Amino acid sequence: MDNRGFQQGSFNSFQSSSSDEDLMDIPETAMDFSMRDDVPPLDGDIEEDKSYNGGGIGASNRMMDFLEEPIPGVGTYDDFNTIDWVREKSRDRDRHREITNKSKESTWALIHSVSDAFSGWLLMLLIGLLSGSLAALIDISAHWMTDLKEGVCTGGIWFNHEHCCWNSKNVTFEDRDKCPEWNSWSQLIISTDEGAFAYIVNYFMYVLWALLFAFLAVSLVKVFAPYACGSGIPEVLSAAAAAGVSVAFGAPIGGVLFSLEEVSYYFPLKTLWRSFFAALVAAFTLRSINPFGNSRLVLFYVEFHTPWHLFELVPFILLGIFGGLWGALFIRTNIAWCRKRKTTQLGKYPVVEVLVVTAITAVLAFPNEYTRMSTSELISELFNDCGLLDSSKLCDYENRFNTSKAGELPDRPAGVGVYNAMWQLALTLILKIVITIFTFGMKIPSGLFIPSMAVGAITGRLLGVGMEQLAYYHHDWAIFNSWCSQGADCITPGLYAMVGAAACLGEYCLH
């Protein structure tokens, strides 16, 4: 097929085709391949035709001639080029129509036509299976690598801390995180976990592993990132994006909506169904592997039994205001830091920057247990609704009651553990805010979703505990006495953490 024939066929396909995908709405400018005065020609047109003045069918033909020429390198597009979705769909339609027309010529051509029609669904199936499997592998590996900074399982180095103690026979319920099979680095190196020297050894190994992981990540980015470019296949990219969001948040429909909104400006019905199919397969694969051990698709699974009350809209609004202020602060400071990185010598040494920031983060994070644990684990603990069997410091309340309703615990006075956790969380909040500003934009995968959720969840938990204690000690106040009686379960701090996380995450998505 020559280039001019392709161009003419493209227009005919738009005019005469009656398939579902052709009936989808297409932006007005997407149909017009002609060159307008305010649209500059693509690279190469200027070199070949110095007389370009915009407009006309000749300009359209020259543009289509150029688009048909292969671009050197991997794939249809070069690095950091935007994919022309309408052009790609037009080319695929012409290819499919040509195969369909030839299918009547021979049996082999008919088999080729059937396999071509089926190959798209097969590819979606493979994308879903691979996305779900990779997501499970990443979740399991991330947990294992986080625990590796603190110790190792002698019963099997591939076990993380939790899995290591599952089959231990020498562990009690109160100390279920402590088992003889799990050893800290000080126990392995100096055979003791007591004393200042053991603390220093564990401190040193934590920083060392953090630097090693950071160097590994930045090296992989440096080696492989230059070869990452657009594939030029809209259906594959749309389905892959939908499957990725599906396994990340346990929401197949949300993944399709994300792909529809962010990935492609041309989303025919066939692509919609295939993306949904890939997202479903990915979610089913992740659920079958069960990487979190809770039979859920997501790590942050919560279930609150106490409904919120109308007055609690006031602290919820305050959390929303905090999310907006923090989002504005982050955007301004991060842009200023990125500008400084580009205009100074700092930008010439990205690997050194990553290692220095990692070292500072590890040194500051180790003394505080809430900064030492992984951010995902921290958020999960902040969302938790405390029960009688929880051993976390956030659940260290004084139990001053005899009975309670099934599944509910009344508000209780905070114990020493809760007060210690509050100031530790306050320090964690400051560190998370500062570190997030400097890490986002470095030459390393350092996302924004989880750090932003952590900032909001910490703020929400602090406010929730404050409201809980206020309602407990002053339940006779006018704002409480109508719905919060003494001994009732009035305030759920975990709910405040979830609202705060949503507020901060929503602010990022808005910008």
UniProtKB/TrEMBL annotation:
Keyword field: CBS domain, Chloride, Ion transport, Membrane, Transmembrane, Transmembrane helix, Transport
Disordered, as annotated region: 1-22
UniProt organism field: Camelus dromedarius
Listed Low complexity bias regions: 1-18
GO molecular function, one term: voltage-gated chloride channel activity
Membrane topology qualifier: Multi-pass membrane protein
Official protein name in the record: H exchange transporter 3
Keyword Cell inner membrane: no
GO cellular component, one term: plasma membrane
SUPFAM superfamilies to which the protein is assigned, alphabetical: Clc chloride channel
